[in-house]
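Proteins fold reproducibly. Take a sample protein:
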Amino acid sequence: MIRKLLLTLVLSVLVLIFVYPQRDTIISVFSMTEEPLVISKGNYGQSLIVEISFTHEGLPEWLQSLKQPYPLLMLDADWINRSPKVIEIIKERNIPTGLLGGKGAENYTIEAFNKDLAIYQKHFENKPLWFMTSDYEFGADLQQAVFKEEINLLSPTIILTNEKYKKINGALVSWRLNEQSKPKFKDVTKLIEKQKFISIEENIFGYTIKTKKTP
């Protein structure tokens, strides 16, 4: 009887130590599948992705004004290199980021991906959790290369335009900030407040990720 009680107690302690803390860590898609998986939709709400490859007037101020839950910023490697002041804002505010690659349909190579990944790691000192190409096309070899790096592949459900936004449950909504775009930061801020976007992780897995600001 005593042995059974001791065994039950030990098992309970192990569950508390090793299982429940996992709820406060990010579940990585690569560890849940045996093959690369491009995520293009969530399950529990709607999330905003911001693709950044150009610094428009008002971007730094807009980033400073963001409130949690933050959108996921997908950052172009060349833009990262030429935007140290904006990168500092992103890091200071602990806004989640991912890596934005080139056009997959135009032969965005594994070598180009590795180069972009090295730039991201240089500035953020970690691998990104998320990767997408700028045209959302992923060749089989590229998918394998990203999967091997234990980085999740991401593609938006819809692209945010000037048209009236229609809510879609589980949607991953992408807003493009490139040289050709003409962003209206105030309008997007109003949309964020009205639609109550949630984090990518909460949308996909159904629970909130708590992040701690590094000293």
